[in-house]
Amino acid sequence: MRLYRRLLLASEQQEIEDIRSELNDRFGHPPQPVENFLQIASLRIMARNKDIKSLRRKGRQVEIKTAGKLPQQMTRMSRELKIRRLNDYTLLLNLDQTSSLQHLGEILQMI
Q1: C-beta separation of 62 from 55 below 8 A
Q2: Furthest C-alpha separation in the chain
Q3: Which residue has the higher pLDDT, 27 or 94?
Q4: How far apart are CA 79 and CA 49, in angstroms?
Q5: End-to-end Cα separation, the chain, in angstroms
Q6: Which residues lie below 8 Å from residue 42, measured CB to CB, with a gap of 6+?
Q7: Distance CA 91, CA 81 (A)
Q8: What's the Cα-to-Cα distance from 76 to each of 71, 72, 97, rounded to whole Å?
Q9: What is the pLDDT of residues 41-91, one digit of tens each?
Q10: Does one domain contain both 106 and 78?
């Protein structure tokens, strides 16, 4: 329960990595649901640092709303990245089952 609380309160990527390392030391390699939770916590921090107002999953899509205008290169890259620019502040990302969290992380890094 303490680890869960620490994940929710984490404000830096290093805190997530410290928790991941602690889990590995105590329990061995974590199962996929735990890895997913660690990735989601990491994405939350990344989104906050990138000034993203919201991330909302809508079926097999994620809507990304930013506080500021999206970089122009996002328009050029949208075809190859499975994203659609809805307006100057919103992207819609199509996800597949296998790499959805990783793909979302890559998109957030580009913003």
Answers
A1: yes
A2: 46
A3: 27
A4: 25
A5: 33
A6: 13, 16, 105
A7: 11
A8: 10, 7, 25
A9: 999 999 999 889 999 988 888 899 999 888 877 766 776 777 888 898 998
A10: yes
With CA atoms as reference, report the closest residue to 43 among 1, 7, 79. Answer: 7
Domain count, the chain: 2
State pTM to two decimals. Answer: 0.80
Angle between helices 13-27 and 2-9 (to 10 degrees): 160
Task: Note whether 32 and 64 are same-domain residues.
Answer: no
Same domain, residue pair 11 and 60: no
User: How does pLDDT run across 92-109, given as a tens digit for each residue?
Assistant: 888 775 567 888 888 888
**Lowest-pLDDT choice from 13-17, 25-29, 94-98, 107-111:** 94-98
- Of the candidates 49, 65, 86, which is a domain's last residue? 49
Which domain covers residue 110, as residue numbers?
52-111
28 and 66 together in one domain: no
Alpha-helix residue ranges (DSSP H) falling in 1-111: 2-9, 13-27, 32-49, 73-77, 100-110
User: Which amino acid is present at 69?
Assistant: K
